[in-house]
Amino acid sequence: MPEHMNVALMTSGGLAPCLSSSCAHLIQKWNDALAAGSISGLTIRCYKDGYMGILTGDSFILSADDMKNIESLHNLGGSPIGNSRVKLTNIKDCVARGFVKEGEEPIEVAAQRLIADEVNVLHTIGGDDTNTQAAELSKYILEQHGGKVIVIGMPKTIDNDVYPIRQTFGAQTAAIEGAKFFSNVVSESTANPRMLILHECMGRDSGYLTAATAQAYLESLNKLDFPSNNPFPTSKESRGIHAVWIPEIAIDIAAEGARLKELMDKYGCINVFLSEGSGVKDIVAEMEANGEEVQRDSFGHVSLAKINPGQYFAKRLATLVKAEKVLVQKSGYFGRSAPANAFDRDLIGRCAAVGVQSAIEGVSGCMGEDEDKEGFPIRAIEFERIKGGKPFDIKQTWFIEMLAAIGQTH
Predict the structure, then answer these.
(1) Residue 151 CA, distance from chain mean position
(2) How many CB atoms lie within 10 A of CB 395?
(3) Which residue, 100, 198, 213, 236, has fewest beta-carbon neighbours within 10 Å?
(4) Rounded mean pLDDT of 161-175?
């Protein structure tokens, strides 16, 4: 006999253009399951602000009226229920932020909350840290309390750097939005002679977003018309991309500086796309050698906003190309806060459908196209196989051809 399902949703980590659409799709798919008789009843609870909401018991239950017109969430960026960055094993941080009391174990507090709320299924919409934490929480509840919570992860990250998931939610939208952002910023190349514009894209360990954003921008640039026999200094070439720097490719700043100076002399401007993770190890080593503190988040990740790779490289490159003015622009917040586009909505919808069915069958996992399986099937991928830090594949034909077209070799 079908069960009454107590389903909980939470979104966590940084924003991505998929959080609202993931909530909408999951809520709709669960209601479809109820209508089809696959379950006997349905309660959907939303924990506010990610793991913070679970630890503090801050949640709300959706009524039938609340779920009417739920598809309107697809039009929203950000998260409809709020995010936070919380690591359940970082007890000191959880205590300092007031999420648990001194002497309490965050994972036990979270477990007690899910048990008290009688949660059968927990949908964690987040990156690899969010989903692997949820898997550990589910395992803890089973081993320590004899309870069972099915965890269905939804892989959110604009970095597209999660093993073994072929395409994470929101990454494609973020690339398109980043290209849109730069299509305006590039006009600043006409604001001053010998202008250096550095477009800094998000991407801690993976150059996917920077590369995909560059590809999307060049595609949009190629669709623009310019005057016949263009007599003006602003052109497709001056508005193009002259370098793409990502973590997977070592940057020879001297060699690149010499190459780019020739282009600066020719066009009067240089446009560089930089992944924020590029050269981070070198920057951190330099800071530590100088006795400077390197700030890290609760997960131990270097705070990229604090070390500012864009300014670091802009300062060095400006001297090499003899730039008169330098502009560093970051598209990350613009891109990641957009609503999901048609591509991501479709991907999320297909994963949500399989995810709900997996939950009903009692199978936990992180949803996605499993690139280790033939045909890349959408399935609940085993959490022990989920891992962040997947590098961008620089051997892809389109990427090699793009670098060749802009004159960059590696």
Answers:
(1) 20
(2) 8
(3) 236
(4) 97
pLDDT digits (tens, 9 = 90+) for 56-84: 999 999 999 999 999 999 999 999 999 99
Q: Which residues of 19-29 are buried (b: 16+ CB within 10 A; e: fewer)?
A: bbbbbbbbbbb
Closest Cα partner for 350 from 130, 167, 159, 83?
Answer: 167
What is the token pair recorded at 150? 């099915």
Rg of the chain over all Cα atoms, to the nearest angstrom: 23
CA angle 331, 273, 299 (to 5 degrees): 60
Alpha carbon distance 244, 249 (integer Å): 9
Decide if 12 contacts 79 (C-beta within 8 A).
Answer: no
Nearest Cα neighbor of 151 from 163, 140, 161, 160 is: 140
DSSP class of 269: E
Which amino acid is located at 395 in the chain?
K
Using DSSP, state whether 60 is helix, strand or coil. strand
Share of the chain above pLDDT 70, in %: 96
Q: What's the order of all strands across the beta sheet hosting 378-381?
A: 59-61, 41-47, 4-11, 121-126, 150-155, 365-369, 378-381
Q: Quick count: other Cβ atoms within 10 Å of Cβ 207?
A: 29
pLDDT computed for residue 348 by the predictor: 98
Task: Confirm if 220 and 177 have CB atoms less than 8 A apart.
Answer: no
Q: Does residue 241 contact residue 406 with C-beta atoms inside 8 Å?
A: yes
Residues known to be catalytic: 159
Residue 120 clears pLDDT 60, i.e. is over it:
yes
